[in-house]
């Protein structure tokens, strides 16, 4: 809840009559990640930056690991004001809504360069305002690419697409259907529960970013990691409820707006570093990293393209420009590659 208090401030050596009232703005930040997570580390730096650039007027208190907001409903909770600000990137896992955001998980496959992702996103969002409209109930304070996803397995090295057949793979929701199409069983469970599932042999593998090999200690329970570079594309990562935003003074709003790009890049950079840390951690555990041939990787991407077009057609039926967005993303990537 936004709290505004007044305090008296004045220049040193001046009489008390020279003091003036200054608003102190207290904001809450809800997130499902810990302070050590790449987004959490970036958020702490951003909180300090906002405080410094508002001369101490704005103080943001973070609530980590879902102690104020939930992972499943955080977007709605930010809209309702449960917290003033929050991590809204988890909207891509929400069971309802955000159809275009979820489709990105299939549309951006193989696009790994952050600068190209940002360029494509800027062009596509300008051409198709329906994308940003999904987040019109909040003020976006950071937009960022995140780590790409790969396939980590316990005992079965994946050196070709056929090696997936018969395996049970933990997946983000976007990748369950592609994994099923490749002959495996796709299941969704939170990453926090993945370690036990893999350790006990309930699951054979997991689609995850490199950083999860360390942050969730998955490098201890897998022997192989096959690089796939499945990308979710850029997405709004942090947002503020509109009621809270509209109650902020204009000069404070400008400080937040001037830091949107910085915050997004800070998140991106910390994810990149966390990926490197994950690779180093897994190497120390003796994990083998597998690079597929172009021909084998294309087998994965051909499945992704087929399913992406089907998903785009479903969006078309809902009155959204799904096929146009997919083709524009791939066209811009082909031109940039």
Describe the structure.
The chain has 337 residues and is α/β, with parallel strands linked by helices. The protein has two domains: 3-98 and 111-145 and 233-275, Bacterial extracellular solute-binding protein, family 7 (D-Maltodextrin-Binding Protein, domain 2); 149-231 and 286-336, D-Maltodextrin-Binding Protein, domain 2 (3-Layer(aba) Sandwich), CATH 3.40.190. The protein contains 13 helices and twelve strands. The chain has helices at residues 38-53, 74-80, 99-107, 114-127, 130-133, 176-181, 194-199, 212-215, 242-246, 250-258, 260-284, 294-317, 322-336, and strands at 3-9, 20-30, 58-63, 85-87, 138-144, 149-153, 168-170, 185-187, 205-208, 224-230, 235-241, 288-290. Strands 1, 2, 3, 4, 5 and 11 form a six-stranded mixed beta sheet that branches. It has a six-stranded mixed beta sheet with strand order 8-7-9-6-10-12. Strand 2, helix 1 and strand 3 form a beta-alpha-beta unit. Helix 1 (38-53) packs antiparallel against helix 11 (260-284), helix 3 (99-107) runs antiparallel to helix 12 (294-317) and helix 12 (294-317) runs antiparallel to helix 13. The relative contact order is 0.16.
